[in-house]
Specification:
The complex is a heterodimer of chains A (about 425) and B (about 475). Chain A contains 15 helices and 19 strands. An 8-stranded antiparallel sheet of chain A has the order 15-12-14-13-17-18-16-19. In chain A, a hairpin with a 4-residue loop joins strand 17 and strand 18. Chain B contains 16 helices and 18 strands. Chain B is globular. Classes of the chains: A alpha+beta (about 425), B alpha+beta (about 475).
Chain lengths: ~425, ~475
């Protein structure tokens, strides 16, 4: 069915209103549509389906450089107008939000009841919650509170054919039917356009304290971490920092850092802080310092990406911290001036690596060497964001075992048979 | 449809003669789970010892279009491990090994037939534990916990089974043996582990599970508070949560249940109490100390008749004694009961309590309540005499009305028991046709022939879910370009 761009643009304008649909390219039907409700989103997706157009959902736009470059973009569905907090129940510690609500606006609302959503990916204040769910974003607090798979209770999404669908529940405990929210977390908009989320919240701890420990090297850090994990201490963050990260947050320029924080009632954070300081000193740490809360703001800035940097997630294991840091250092020897910074959550063994601007083949080579090293014991390396040339030069996701990939392909083919939802961007170019 | 002798011989070749149950009396043992209301004996029971045998069984059944029903310890409460259409029941109890304990990486890999508590027993001396603790944990299998996504009294703080599963080895309905996820938690692609936990055997059979282990908390403190009404007890629950505490457990018992328990074991709950609240806090000693005092103060402020804080493990065990005996104590009230598992938002508990009372009165039946108040997960026991068909009919009507009331308050059909055969018919209360259609298609990815535990989890339908037709939005006039 041949369609004129003009007629199509008029069609989308009828759905969302003239001021919310604009053509971004007058030749091809490439349009940014900004719906104001789940209903409008569903109808817009249905129209795109009728015209066999490819859809890219967009939150704040901060992770549009994740994954492969898209195979096709006909319509961008911009969710920024879906910015209402639908229902906040402080007594139930649950909130239902539209997908375009930003992290900072939700935090401001929850703060009034001394509650929070403990998902803290770096520099995410302006990101949308839909974007966080679609990319399974996380930060240091996962050590205590887990990730979005542990906090997303219910989800509304629009399927490829425009059918509005709900999965999960609005209560903190439900096993009714399949766990559809888990399928949607980290699915990068390839199975549906997320429009509404119900999330589990936590009470903000009354008190919090952070200790920064510097150890001689990765092996010493590994031993101290093992000792902390095999104790009844209950940290809410436990991050390991390489020398570059340590220097950037104002610590020593050599050695490996461990930043650990406790959140609880005052008496408990004081007791745990004393215990961790004692442990670190007994084990011969080079330095042990209590640091201000501002430490975490500085730590977050390690991951800024305004200068053409590449940001990676390395999936590893708690007992492989030293191996992972060594693997990064060995792979990074070829990076020269652009340098790299590594730090991550020791409780689950998940790291971030930032590589400064460098020629695409250099960065791609680094990723491939690191992938081979950690892949030997089951680890993964995924590109969280990178210049397009880098993502064209290396698979941004890395290998998925063939039998697992076959199931993923089958899921994609079942729910998006014409490959119109974010085509090409996800693993194996799904 | 009886199985052909050729098929049974082929099955015997896979699992051996001692791995096959064919006699009528042998199969009778497998005709139901703990929901004894629903019965369906399998045509044969196979007891494989390896994942390869499980895979061969599924391939054989698929070839001849024979239903496959997995079974762990048979302690489920939903008619899940019940051969609704006959076929082959696969008992996984012989696959009960602990494959690997990896404390350094905070995980363990086990076979599905391993009893839940045995895993904690294996790591307790080193100071670790496996968090999901369904009341059946002394007998239920981890494979069964994964199938139903089981909960337990302590999941208020620690989450249900899915929050502790890192990897699965699964024989899908297509007969493929796949390994999903694993000890490394960050991986590319869809979260297939999260999607598969709680599939109740409709995706296939789990042959190994990698689970998270946690370090035991430094301190545990248990308190018991009694109240003169359910409403004030429910308000105390809300106030404790609002004060920023996340107890490991917050359990409530009503007047009927308190009476039944006191008549039996003599747990010594206050006779005048209309509600008993069990509060368990765990974590760093200093935190537990402060929060136990705060929780006790909140209960007193809300007019608690009595607040007892256990001073040692023996006293702690005594406070829990009555709670653990609750289901048995109901035997004093009626020959049998229907067990509910609906969830309401915690703030709606007082309202739900009133509505429950009205429903019980309207149908002239006795309701006993013991439930996880902290997360709003209700377990009313609807008592009846199964020799009286009229009582049974009234109990069933009350059961349905309770579910409708819970959903109307924004709740869920099941919080931790699962759907199974029992609650499949209730899913349309919570999900629209579009939502159910999505689930049917998801199931089809793993089990295209719909032979894996048929008639469970999803409501039955005339033609593979087509009765759950999704509603597509109508395009407004002028958009038909």
């Amino acid at each position: 069915m041949a369609v004129s761009t003009r007629a199509l643009v008029d069609g989308f304008r009828t759905i969302v209103g003239a001021s919310h649909a604009r053509a971004v390219d007058g030749v091809e039907p490439q349009i940014v549509v900004t719906p104001g409700s789940t209903g409008e989103t569903a109808t817009a997706v249905a129209l795109a389906a009728a015209e066999k157009l490819a859809i890219v959902p967009r939150g704040s736009g901060s992770t549009l450089d994740q994954g492969f470059p898209p195979a096709r973009v006909d319509v961008v569905i911009d969710l920024s107008r879906l910015d209402r907090i639908v229902e906040y129940n402080p007594d139930d510690l649950t909130v239902t939000v539209e997908a375009g609500v930003t992290v900072s606006s939700l935090a401001a609302t929850l703060d009034r009841s001394a509650q929070f959503l403990p998902i803290d990916p770096p520099l995410a204040a302006t990101r949308t919650l839909g974007g966080l769910v679609a990319t399974n974003a996380s930060g240091p607090l996962r050590a205590r509170y887990g990730t979005l798979r542990d906090l997303l209770l219910g989800v509304r999404f629009v399927q490829a054919d425009g059918v509005s669908t709900w999965g999960g529940s609005k209560v903190v405990k439900s096993v009714t039917g399949y766990d559809v929210p888990k399928l949607m977390v980290g699915s990068l908009g390839t199975l549906g356009v997320l429009t509404e989320l119900t999330l589990r919240l936590h009470a903000r701890p009354e008190a919090e304290r952070t200790v920064l420990i510097v150890t001689a090297d990765a092996a010493a850090a590994q031993q101290l971490v093992a000792c902390l994990l095999d104790s009844s201490l209950q940290p809410n963050r436990l991050e390991v920092l390489d020398a570059a990260a340590l220097a950037a947050v104002g610590g020593a320029a050599t050695g490996v850092g461990i930043a650990v924080s406790f959140g609880s009632v005052e008496a408990a954070v004081v007791a745990q802080e004393a215990e961790v300081i004692g442990l670190a000193r007994t084990r011969g740490a080079a330095s042990v310092t209590s640091v201000a809360r501002a430490f975490w703001a500085a730590y977050e800035r390690l991951w800024r990406r305004d200068d053409g940097a590449t940001l990676l997630t390395v999936g590893a294991l708690p007992a492989r911290l030293a191996d992972t840091l060594d693997a990064v250092a060995r792979a990074g020897a070829s990076l020269r001036d652009s340098g790299f910074t590594t730090a991550g959550c020791a409780v689950v063994g998940s790291f971030r690596v930032r590589v400064g601007r460098a020629p695409a083949p250099t960065v791609a080579g680094f990723i491939e060497r690191l992938r081979a090293a950690v892949g030997a014991w089951g680890g993964s390396v995924m590109v969280q964001g990178a210049p397009r040339e880098v993502r064209a030069a290396v698979d941004p996701w890395g290998p998925v075992p063939p039998d697992t990939l076959a199931i993923m392909r089958s899921i994609k083919a079942t729910f998006d048979p014409d490959r119109r939802l974010n085509p090409g961007r996800f693993v194996a170019g799904l | 449809m009886p199985l052909s002798s050729k098929f049974v011989d082929e099955l015997r070749a896979i699992v051996g003669s001692d791995g096959l149950v064919t006699s009528v009396e042998g199969r009778l043992v497998y005709e139901c789970d703990m929901h004894t209301f629903y019965k369906g004996a399998p045509d044969v029971v196979a007891l494989p010892g390896t994942a390869a045998q499980v895979q061969s069984i599924v391939k054989l059944c698929r070839r001849d279009a024979i239903p496959v029903v997995p079974r762990g310890s048979g302690t489920g409460l939903i008619g899940g491990a019940m051969a609704a259409r006959g076929g082959v029941m696969v008992g996984l109890n012989r696959m009960d090994a602990i494959v690997e304990i990896d404390i350094a990486n905070r995980c363990a890999t086990v076979q599905p037939g391993l009893i839940n508590l045995w895993l904690t027993n294996a790591v307790r001396e080193r100071g670790w534990f496996f968090a999901p603790d369904p009341s059946s944990q002394m007998v239920s299998s981890i494979g069964g916990n994964v199938a139903t996504n089981a909960g337990g009294p302590h999941c208020l703080k620690y989450g249900i089974t899915t929050n502790h599963v890192l990897g699965l080895e699964l024989v899908t309905g297509t007969g493929d043996l796949v390994r999903l996820g694993g000890a490394v938690s960050d991986r590319p692609g869809y979260d297939l582990v999260g999607t598969a936990v709680g599939n109740e055997g409709t995706f296939g059979l789990v042959t190994a599970v990698t689970v998270r282990l946690l370090h035991a908390p430094e301190a545990v403190k248990t308190a018991l508070a009694s109240f003169s009404s359910m409403e004030t007890a429910a308000e105390a629950v809300s106030a404790i949560i609002a004060a920023g505490m996340l107890p490991a457990a917050l359990e409530m018992l009503d007047e009927v249940m308190i009476g039944a328990i006191n008549a039996g074991s003599g747990a010594g709950y206050p006779d005048k109490a209309a509600a008993v609240l069990l509060i368990e806090l765990d974590g760093p000693a200093a935190e537990v100390e402060v929060e136990a005092e705060r929780a006790a103060a909140i209960c007193r402020e809300r007019g608690a008749l009595e607040v007892r804080v256990a001073r040692d493990d023996a006293e702690r065990a005594l406070l829990w004694k009555g709670r653990k005996e609750a289901a048995g104590a109901v035997g004093r009230l009626a020959p049998t009961y229907l067990l509910q598992d609906a969830v309401v938002p915690r703030s709606k508990l007082p309202l739900m309590m009133r509505q429950m009372g009205e429903i019980a009165l309207r149908h002239g039946i006795l309701l006993a309540n013991v439930f996880h108040a902290g997360d709003g997960n209700l377990h009313p026991l609807i008592c009846y005499d199964d020799r009286d068909p009229d009582q049974l009919a009234r109990a069933k009507r009350a059961n349905e009305e309770l579910l409708v009331a819970a959903i109307a308050l924004g709740g869920s059909v099941t919080g931790e028991h699962g759907v199974g055969f029992d609650k499949a018919k209730n899913l349309p209360l919570q999900y629209a046709p579009s939502d159910l259609n999505f689930m049917y298609r998801l199931r089809g990815v793993f089990d295209p022939d719909r032979l894996m535990n048929p008639d469970k989890l999803l409501p039955s339908h005339p033609a593979c879910g087509e009765s759950f037709r999704p509603e597509r939005p109508a395009l407004p006039a002028g958009t038909w370009v």
